[in-house]
């Protein structure tokens, strides 16, 4: 069986606080909702039974799993309780790319404002929900248990508010950040994707609708408190819609660094009609560059075969493979197709613990082929090809249908991609306006003949 390319998705989606806060006050399920949840459980259980690449998913007796969890579904009183039961069942697999996306996550984007919020809500608008399209222009990572600002987009609300890289975020709308970080750090269930979980949790707290105002407290470079009111601006990039996923914002930034080094940062592997021409032009514009940097830090993945399309711009040999995926009854190779006038000079790929799925496929494959040197920190280890479907109750269901093996014969699931040169963000360098990972890549490129 050959899997249609349009369905191949390698995206790690982790819903942390994407559901509006007002859903916490849930009513008991109606008979119609109970019937929808019963049908949804059946879809989830049968999909894993029929589509998982292992006849014994996760080494489990899947009939026993149904016997254990189906009675719990019947006793669920609220939608939240039902989702927790499904989540507990999926956790038994101990594999990435199995999860439930609550229907409210879709509603936050698709439903008009007046329909999103209950009329009797007494909470301020900015606290009732998080998850709109407004952008702060900040990127955050947890370093030494502190939320460091690692990037401030030029011209963004954050830049206009005077926020600098290296500052430490301490509170959002009066809520301290440190306890959230400690709680996630202590969770044994996120040990393999802690960096991703921390990053997504922090960024979610900086989200909202365009025009929403956040009250932020930072510690600056002199360790002095800085109170900042930041109004979220229009999103940078384009909104891409793919299958049953909520819309995803996609950015592809291109620039030329010192010493004539080309640089591309890709936020996710979506919107190929727009993204692929941008990357193609970037390679053509830097055909005679001294080196090229492909920055996949924070990229959670997306359409799997975009890795093949991007990789084809950096090789000249035919029939090279980034790796292959194995379903229950087939094998599909990720074969690179060399593009006209590819860039064949030194290539550096940047990754971190929030790089997942398609990002890992591309970085790990190019590393195994000895075509690129990888810088940063170990990736998330969540590289399973997956699909999204909408369930009868309106929730989304992501499930993996194949295992993925890199060109070097290594499974990327759990293990991730280990950089050739490990470089972690450093507050001192960030306060000086430097990106140590980029600096390390530049130094390596300059050293090549």
Task: Give the helices and strands, then pairings.
Elements: E1 9-11, H1 31-51, H2 62-75, H3 79-91, E2 99-101, H4 103-110, H5 113-116, H6 125-128, E3 138-143, E4 146-152, H7 157-160, E5 168-172, E6 175-176, H8 178-186, H9 194-205, E7 213-219, E8 225-231, E9 238-240, E10 248-250, E11 252-257, E12 261-266, H10 272-285, E13 291-295, E14 301-303, H11 306-311, E15 321-326, E16 331-335, E17 347-351, H12 358-368, E18 373-376, E19 386-390, E20 396-400, E21 403-406, E22 421-422, H13 427-431, H14 436-447
Parallel strand pairs: 12-13, 13-17, 17-18, 18-22
Antiparallel strand pairs: 1-14, 2-20, 3-4, 4-5, 5-6, 5-7, 7-8, 9-10, 11-12, 15-16, 15-21, 19-20
Helix pairs in contact: 1-2, 2-3, 8-9
Describe this structure in words.
- With 449 residues, the protein is of the alpha+beta class.
- It has 14 helices and 22 strands.
- The protein has helices at residues 31-51, 62-75, 79-91, 103-110, 113-116, 125-128, 157-160, 178-186, 194-205, 272-285, 306-311, 358-368, 427-431, 436-447; strands at 9-11, 99-101, 138-143, 146-152, 168-172, 175-176, 213-219, 225-231, 238-240, 248-250, 252-257, 261-266, 291-295, 301-303, 321-326, 331-335, 347-351, 373-376, 386-390, 396-400, 403-406, 421-422.
- Strands 3, 4, 5, 6, 7 and 8 form a six-stranded antiparallel sheet that branches. Strands 11-12-13-17-18-22 form a six-stranded mixed sheet, sandwiched between helices.
- A hairpin with a 7-residue loop joins β9 and β10 (248-250).
- The longest helix has 21 residues, at 31-51.
- The chain is globular.
């Amino acid at each position: 069986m050959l899997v249609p390319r349009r369905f191949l998705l390698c995206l790690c989606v982790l819903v942390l606080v994407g559901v509006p806060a007002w859903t916490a006050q849930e009513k008991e399920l109606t008979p119609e909702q109970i019937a929808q949840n019963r049908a949804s459980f059946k879809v989830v259980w049968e999909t894993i039974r029929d589509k998982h690449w292992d006849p014994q998913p996760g080494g489990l007796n899947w009939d026993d799993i149904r016997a254990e969890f189906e009675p719990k579904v019947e006793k669920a009183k609220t939608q939240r309780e039902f989702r927790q039961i499904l989540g507990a069942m999926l956790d038994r697999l101990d594999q990435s790319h199995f999860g439930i996306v609550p229907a409210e996550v879709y509603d936050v984007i698709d439903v008009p404002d007046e329909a999103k919020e209950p009329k009797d809500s007494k909470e301020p608008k900015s606290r009732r929900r998080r998850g709109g399209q407004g952008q702060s222009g900040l990127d955050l990572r947890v370093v030494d248990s502190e939320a460091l600002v690692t990037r401030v987009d030029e011209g963004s609300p954050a830049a206009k508010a005077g926020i600098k890289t290296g500052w430490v975020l301490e509170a959002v709308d009066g809520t301290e950040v440190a306890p959230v970080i400690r709680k996630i750090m202590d969770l044994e269930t996120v040990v393999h994707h802690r960096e991703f979980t921390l990053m997504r949790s922090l960024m979610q707290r900086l989200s909202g609708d365009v025009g929403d105002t956040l009250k932020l407290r930072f510690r600056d470079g002199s360790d002095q408190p800085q109170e900042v009111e930041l109004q979220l601006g229009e999103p940078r990039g384009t909104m891409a819609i793919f299958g049953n996923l909520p819309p995803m914002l996609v950015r592809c930034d291109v620039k030329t660094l010192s010493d004539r080094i080309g640089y591309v940062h890709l936020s996710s592997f979506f919107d190929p009609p727009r993204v692929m021409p941008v990357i193609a032009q970037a390679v053509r514009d830097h055909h005679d560059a001294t080196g090229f940097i492909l920055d996949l830090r924070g990229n959670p993945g997306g359409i799997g075969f975009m890795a093949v399309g991007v990789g084809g711009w950096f090789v000249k040999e035919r029939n090279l493979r980034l790796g292959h995926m194995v379903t229950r009854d087939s094998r599909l190779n990720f074969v690179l197709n060399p593009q006209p006038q590819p860039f064949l000079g030194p290539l550096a790929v940047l990754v971190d613990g929030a790089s997942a799925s398609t990002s890992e496929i591309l970085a790990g494959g190019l590393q195994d082929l000895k075509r690129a040197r990888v810088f940063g920190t170990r990736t998330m280890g969540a590289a399973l090809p997956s699909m999204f479907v909408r369930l009868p109750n309106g929730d989304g269901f992501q499930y993996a249908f194949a295992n993925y093996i890199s060109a070097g014969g290594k499974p990327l699931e759990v293990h991730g991609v280990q950089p050739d040169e490990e470089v972690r963000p450093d507050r001192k360098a960030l306060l000086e306006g430097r990106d140590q990972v980029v600096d390390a890549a530049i130094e390596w490129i300059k050293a090549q003949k």
